Amino acid sequence: MSERKKPLIVFTKYSPYFVVDMEKLEDSKGNELPLKPVTALCRCGHSMGKPYCDGTHSRYGIDGSKSEERVPYKWKDYWGEKITVHYNAGVCSHDGSCVKGLSSVFNINKRPWINPDKASPEEIIEVIKRCPSGALAYSIDGVRYSDFYNGEPKIKMARKGPLEIYGGVILKDDEGSVPETLDHYTLCRCGHSKNKPFCDGNHLRNKFIDA
Ligand code: SF4
Ligand code: FES
User: Fold this and answer.
1) Average pLDDT, integer, range 54-81
2) What is the total count of domains within the chain?
3) Which atom of ligand 2 lies closest to the CA of 162?
């Protein structure tokens, strides 16, 4: 039996994402999409054949630089009696899984916006596991947990949002970008993130669409 190759994503500041040896690409409904041994995926947001690159970036250009105006990278701890939730706004892709999943704990209209005593640790963990970006982690009894995905490596297109990368997919670019955790992270595919190559939620402000 041939040994399975480790998938990776390679790119430069001015290129699309080149996905190498990846076996699974899913659309937002869970349908599998075709992949070649090396597949170029759009990161400028302008391809007419998303998620694939169709070369349109040569007209618009890609600038994969990080902006000075990006949200600072900073972990904050939210202490509860049984569980501590950790959150880093500089990593968040603002997909809203936390606030939609458990608004008693994650509520942006309250301060602090995370209150770990408003639900059981099990409920909170369940929601933290749905965070695609790596912006949420938790600790119990002094042990920190930030990796939750158990399946095969895969890329999932979030609806009108970033590429969600799961399962230890190595990222290699000319900027030395490092995901918060290789277990799960989100890559910008709208072209508007201030924290490229990672998604920072700006697809929402810019009304990015998949088509
Ligand atoms: S990326 Fe994570 S922390 Fe940010 S909104 Fe989504 S679930 Fe919440
Ligand atoms: S896809 Fe989220 S900021 Fe570009």
Assistant:
1) 94
2) 1
3) 1
